[in-house]
Amino acid sequence: MNSGIGDWSTHLDGISEKDYFQNLLGFLNRQTKLSKTIYPPKESWFKAFEHSSYANTKVVILGQDPYHGEGQAEGMSFSVPKGVKIPPSLRNIYKELTSDLNTSTPEHGHLVSWAKQGVLLLNSVLTVEKNSPASHANQGWEVFTDTVIKLLSDKKQHLVFLLWGAYAGKKSELIDEDKHLILRAPHPSPFSAHKGFFGCQHFSQANNYLSSTNQQAIDWQL
Fold first, then answer.
1. What pLDDT shows up at residue 99?
2. Are 211 and 217 in contact (CB under 8 A)?
């Protein structure tokens, strides 16, 4: 495993030796040798884990795979670096955030302050080929990230899982709903946000649950 993922390495020890993970690394190496451009850059593949430690994680926002446009993906679901145009789904997340909590609308898409408060911004697939969405699906990443979700569900208490869209919603099968809060809504993309993402009030619900379980609420203001 990447040595930069801090206390996660203790809980994920041995995964890098598993056949599926070796096969995944082989696939990624072949893509590189074929001169394919992979997003995010290699040093950012595990960035979500670097910013939100295992011990600190209390909210999980699950995405599908990274942004496939140049300069967008930075290893955290829905997040883009400062200076990069805010993508449509994130803009809709911000609309719901400002409606729900009466915050001011963020002017950038860099979500690292959420991550540092214990929001694990986890994509199910951690890499993608440039301009080719879902191009790295079914290569092994999903096995790894499902392991992470199940680890959190089994070993921790009172987490909040924000599952937006049908793909993320299926991951509820990995989560013990007796121990954790699962909040489901349509995906915030422009194609579906109006079908129930707007008005879902997930940010306030998450904070209310954290407070009710004696945890520090998230400061969602960016």
1. 97
2. yes
CB atoms within 10 A of CB 155: 9
Instruction: Compute mean pLDDT per 10 residues along the chain, 222 residues long, and list them.
Output: 79 93 97 96 96 97 96 98 97 98 96 98 98 97 97 98 97 98 97 97 98 98 95
The b/e string for 129-140 (b: 16+ C-beta within 10 A; e otherwise) is beeeeebbeebb
65 is catalytic: yes
CB atoms within 10 A of CB 22: 12
Catalytic entry in 65, 146, 176, 178? 65
CB–CB of 65/128 below 8 Å?
yes
